[in-house]
Amino acid sequence: MVKAIVKQYVDLLHAKGLVNDEQHAKLLQGEFASLSDVDAVVRQQVVLGEEDTTQAKAELYNVEYASLIGKSMTSAILNLLPHDLAENYKIVVFEREGNRIKVGLVDPGNFRAIEAVDFMAMKNNFQVQYFTISLESYRAAAKQYETLHEEVGEALDTAETIFAPKGEALDLQGKTSLDEMIKSAPVTKIISVVLRHAIEGRASDIHIEPVGNQSRIRYRIDGILHTTIVLPIYVHSALISRIKVMASLKIDETRVPQDGRIRLNIFNKDIDFRIATIPLLNYEKVVMRILSTPDKAPTFQDLGFRGLQLDKMERNINKPNGMFLVTGPTGSGKSTTLFAGLSRLNIEGVNITTLEDPVEYFVLGVNQSAVRPEVGFTFANGLRALLRQDPDIIMVGEIRDNETASLAIQASLTGHFLLSTLHTNSALGAIPRLYDMKVEPFLLANTLNLVVAQRLIRKLCAHCKAPVKLSSDLMARIEEAFVVIPEKAFFDGINLKSPLQFFRGVGCPRCGHSGYSGRSTIAEAADITKPMKDLITTGFRRKDVEEELKNQDFITMKQDGIIKAMLGVTSVEEVLMVSEEK
After folding, report:
1. Nearest to 172 by CA among 156, 159, 185
2. Which of 277, 515, 525, 575 could form a disulfide with 312 if both were Cys (CB 3.0 to 4.6 A apart)?
3. In this structure, is the dihedral angle defined by the CA atoms of residues 239, 245, 247 and 249, taken in order, positive or negative?
4. Which of 484, 500, 458 is nearest to 331 (CA)?
5. Which residues of the chain fall short of a pLDDT of 70?
6. pTM
7. Under a CB-based contact definition with an 8 Å cutoff, are residues 166 and 177 in contact?
8. What angle do CA 14, 18, 22 make, to 5 degrees?
9. Distance between CA atoms of residues 520 and 143, nearest Å
């Protein structure tokens, strides 16, 4: 039955012109267990939108299509189906007129979902009209079941009777109060809701911090911090204590910073939270970094690398020895780039060992270690130990000091391929930085293969981006950087003759009216060629280096960003802000 419906679906996509003859033939040869499997391949290879495939499914099952993006629904209507039932079957009641209800199905072929709705309808004497909806439509509706403020508000009403000061301020440092805080059901619910909404909102970090007489919770989404909810200060210590318990930290130690880790299953996916606490004047602050290993390891191209930068990375990642360096400030995506490189190198006949602080992405088949300076297991000591583990490929999370730099060079000289990161603002800034770490120039020249510098930029929302006319001053700054881009460095159809057309995000419900959704990379990559090696050995004179970069058709992060802005990936303002152009 499944195979028959899959064939009908593939044939329908072909008939509607969504896939061409060649793609249709390839899809028919594939082994698919469900229509979702077909969708995953189609969207990757044919670049179809989710709504396109959803409309095709609606036609296939003869169940009318509906879009719920931007549609407002009341809790009373949504709660006709319990949230857990809706989440399990990906179904939602989105409209009601008298005893008639409209129900959206992500999978109109899921008969168990239809049975569940029919049972509810029979019990309440409802007449049901079914619609086919996309997963994105379902998520937009599901977010409205209860907002973060409503869910936290309910828990806060209960918490107030426990923690709110009566007559005089509650002693939150006392042991009895601490025990109550940890065991308190409302505090547990608040933390649970905050974590769940952070995952739903694609946040990368959660900040819980005291601000005056309030406890402020902020999410970092696409690199920008947003205040999500503000709570009374009397629950702040309770929230921090609950997180400490979950991360197995010392709850009675509030004088020194602590680091820990929490692993939870949210939306049927294992999510890691890296916890860092720090004492402030009267309270503690906690930051939680959300570490979610993707189902499929990204490629360099998935991360946003294009053109000559991508070519240099693809060529150098396959070298048998030497150093592959990624540079940039904290939060610029360096670890994710190394994760993509490791996943590509991770094959049966290779021994890959890593040393990280902490382990951010788990890669099956790779031996991953986390440094622990408190017991003497530093990057330098760990790297010495790794060299005795018969490695082919080594990944060191960061080169921080002279000793680690020296050992990394020695590892590269002895036939190992080493990947690592460095905190510098540009690709070529890595060379003087390593000089400062007392690395011998002739050794550096013989080991370094490639240096990549990168930043993360916010991507324009694909659903609301529109052309924009820049001011004359801004356009002049863009033209100045654009006209000196080497012809060979252009990519994806852009060249010196292309009109300087740019875009902005208008704002819509899909992107939370921000105009941006998701992030990509802008980068510059310096190939350590034979002439560049000679320059490293002889003093790295700036004039000679710039001449060699011209021979490589090198482009800066700003120029890479301008090309991507012309392609509609991001905005000019974002490129200038991220590339530190004032």
Report:
1. 159
2. 525
3. positive
4. 458
5. 1-2, 43-48, 145-185, 295, 509, 580-582
6. 0.72
7. no
8. 55
9. 25
pLDDT digits (tens, 9 = 90+) for 395-428: 998 998 898 899 999 899 888 999 999 999 899 9
Q: How far apart are CA 450 and CA 428, in angstroms?
A: 10
SS (HEC) of 327-395: ECCCCCCHHHHHHHHHHHHCCCCCCEEEEECCCCCCCCCCEEEECEHHHCECHHHHHHHHCCCCCCEEE
Which residues are within 8 A (CB) of 264 and not within 5 positions of it... i.e. 6 or more apart?
A: 195, 270, 271, 273
DSSP 128-180: EEEEE--HHHHHHHHTTSS-HHHHHHHHHHHHHHHHS-BSB---TTSHHHHHH
The residues near 170 (Cβ < 8 Å, ≥ 6 apart) are 163, 164, 177, 234
pLDDT for 181 equals 46
* Predicted pLDDT of residue 146: 59
Strand partners, 523: 454
Are 403 and 371 a contacting pair, CB within 8 Å?
no
Residue type, 419: L
Distance of alpha carbon 512 from alpha carbon 505, whole angstroms: 11
- Amino acid found at 33: A
Which H or E run includes 185? helix 185-200
C-alpha distances (whole Å) from 360 to each of 261, 301, 369, 486 are 11, 21, 11, 37
